Amino acid sequence: MLYKIPKSFINELLINTNIVELISSKINTIKKGKNYYSICPFHNEKTPSFSISFEKQFYYCFGCHVHGNAIDFLINYEKMNFIESIKELSFLNGMKIPKQNIYFKKYLKEENLHNTLNTISLNYQKNIYKEKNKIAIKYLKYRGINEKSIKTFSIGYSNNIKNVSKNYIKKNKNFVNNLIKSGILYNEKNIVKNRFTERIMFPIKNLQGKINGFGARSIFKKIPKYLNSPETKIFKKKENLYGLFETYKYNKKIKKLLIVEGYFDVITLFQNKIKYSISILGTSINTNIIKKLFNICNTLIYCYDGDNAGKIASWKTLEISLPYIKDENVLKFIFLPKGEDPDSIIKKEGIKKFKNRIKNAVPMSKLLFKKLLKKNNLSNPEEKTKFSITAISMIEKIPGKTIKFFLKKILGNKLGILEINELSEYKIKKKNIVSSKKKKKILV
Ligand SMILES: [Zn+2]
Fold this sequence. Notes:
Elements: H1 7-16, H2 19-24, E1 30-32, E2 35-38, E3 50-53, E4 58-61, E5 67-68, H3 70-77, H4 82-93, H5 101-127, H6 134-142, H7 147-152, E6 156-158, H8 166-171, H9 173-181, E7 185-188, E8 191-194, E9 199-205, E10 211-218, E11 226-228, E12 241-242, H10 244-250, E13 256-260, H11 263-271, E14 277-280, H12 287-296, E15 299-304, H13 308-321, E16 330-335, H14 342-349, H15 351-359, E17 362-363, H16 364-372, H17 381-395, H18 401-415, H19 420-443
Parallel strand pairs: 13-14, 13-15, 15-16
Antiparallel strand pairs: 1-2, 2-3, 3-4, 4-5, 6-9, 7-8, 9-10, 10-11, 12-14, 16-17
């Protein structure tokens, strides 16, 4: 059945297939430069506009715009169904389609890592209350973290063991292996070492509450101050979000999300009854996360740290969010005073003022024009042109028709053009630029 063929096998199959050879065995092709061409088998024509790229392992027709990979070609040209095309390519490559239990094996492997991390996390949570580690609790208290939060977020402590003894490894071979696979331990010159010695441990959970990895804060001025689990089979830094499990757990329906940078920000906000904040791991916001967040709820409020990096991150967030802003979606930004983060500012001025900051967060539209007009006073036609080209290209990325309409209206006002129709001329030009770019991407 369709869903049982693993994606990894399909990828492997495509890597092993030479699309030029495959298509050339069925229709006449000629080489021109880097690519191969032929009369398009999918529409009537006299001159060849059907191209095949060996490099991209992709075909594309300039006439009727059909395109795809080797599987798509078999489906469309030979009228095979998906499974038949996979069978055909497997046969041509002498590869065997793996049976369904590969999925199950993958699941078991992942479960194994989750269980290992859960065991070690329980250990960390016990460590924190041990007399010899009292500095850990002292530190958390100093950071204003209360007992309840330690429990809610399963905060723990990795004690001062640096190297794992040969004896322990011998006795617990499997467990040590799993700890290495899940990134807790690592092997250096045949010595098994603890990655997180003397660090406060913040488990990063998936939506079911299973632990994917850890964020770790050193309390002895060790560098780096924060250390995350390395990438593993179950921990992908670009996909995981700290606090999302807790947000789901404590909200019947998530109406909005407050996106911050740090573990302590999430916990301090939570302690102050703002139970809808999450932290991206590092400031590496990306489109996958944005898509994921807009799937959870319609209102996203970003509150990066009050520094230059935070300002840059806000703008980057705005830029890459544009293609996901539907009319029902709201995107806002909080800008904190220099040197502050949510945790520090709440301690300084109290939660009431912070709630006001949330209420008065800067909407995307305001930030957009403010930033674009920062170095442009629209004093002459050249400046106006520069501004309108950038602004239109950004606005056009937004799928929400109504928000797009209003943004264009603001733009028209700024430029002194009252007729929206006048603006649509820019729009047409922009569309042409986009489509020619797209073509290039596919072929070059
Ligand atoms: Zn065609």
